[in-house]
TrEMBL record:
Similarity annotation: Belongs to the fructosamine kinase family.
Residue stretches in coiled coil: none
Keywords from the named record: Kinase, Transferase
Protein name (database record): Fructosamine kinase family protein
Ribonucleoprotein among keywords: no
Record GO terms (molecular function): kinase activity
Gene3D superfamilies in the record: 1.20.1270.240, Phosphorylase Kinase, domain 1, Transferase(Phosphotransferase) domain 1
InterPro entries in alphabetical order: Fructo-/Ketosamine-3-kinase (IPR016477), Kinase-like_dom_sf (IPR011009)
């Protein structure tokens, strides 16, 4: 998504080959995240119209990132997550069926624990696709499967309730504007807040350390939370391994063996 100060006050994103409900799913995710704004949650781009092959959004004017805006965003992201979800793996309120992350299907199904949802919805489907296209080898797949077993066994679960997460929170979906950070393009679902933090760290974000510190304080993360960042990064790494090439598959294997 790009922005030009001289352009019209709206932004139209199009995809001629969009599957049915593709942009409706994005709008539902944005609306669900926006519900948390009244509780101090992160600002979300406004939706003006939704069609079969396009979505019309408020046009955002970008500004130079600042430390203060990053810290405000960290606290706001924690508030968005605290707004909660029906269950781990749950779709946004008012949405039924699967959604998308980028151009890939993002399965939605409600689970009682985070570990089972992360294994069965966020890791294995993309690992299998990556194997099918030759981007993830047998050793990498075996490592992912061992991690998934540990996840299903509850070894990484904690007492945190389902969080209302953005789900595709890489730096390109975090826009610094004159009024602060605004998020765009979600793959929103009920998950664990660290998954959003992990994706920000994987692909970079201005003043990332300030976002993380402010978030960790607001969300009362345990001191050892960085030790699980790689675990949460397996989801975006596998999404990219399924579509972007074998270099991501090699990184998946390198990270997965640490948690297998």
């Amino acid at each position: 998504m790009s922005d030009h100060p001289s352009a019209a006050p709206e932004f139209v994103k199009t995809r001629s080959d969009a599957p049915p409900r593709f942009f409706a799913a994005e709008a539902a995710g944005l609306a669900w995240l926006a519900q948390a704004e009244g509780e101090g949650g992160a600002a979300v781009v406004g939706v003006r119209a939704v069609g079969d092959t396009s979505i019309t959004l408020d046009r955002l004017t970008e500004a130079t990132p600042t430390r203060a805006a990053a810290e405000d965003f960290g606290r706001a992201l924690a508030a968005t997550h605290a707004a909660g979800a029906r269950a781990f793996g749950a779709a946004p309120d008012g949405w039924s069926g699967d959604a998308w992350i980028g151009r890939q299907v993002a399965p939605m199904a409600e689970h009682a624990t985070w570990g089972t949802s992360f294994a069965d919805l966020r890791l294995l489907p993309y690992a299998r696709r990556a194997v099918q296209v030759g981007h993830l080898g047998a050793a990498g797949m075996a490592a992912v499967e061992r991690v998934c077993q540990r996840l299903r066994d509850g070894e990484f679960d904690d007492d945190r309730p389902p969080a209302r997460i953005h789900g595709d929170l890489w730096g390109g979906n975090v826009l610094f504007t004159p009024g602060g950070v605004v998020v765009i393009d979600p793959a929103a679902h009920g998950g664990h807040g660290q998954t959003d933090l992990a994706m920000l760290e994987l692909f970079g974000c201005p003043y990332l350390d300030r976002v993380q510190a402010a978030y960790a304080e607001a969300a009362h993360l345990p001191a050892d939370w960085p030790q699980r960042t790689g675990l949460h990064q397996l989801h975006p790494l596998l999404v990219h391994a399924a579509s972007h090439g074998p270099s991501y598959g090699r990184e998946v294997e390198r990270v997965a063996v640490r948690y297998a």
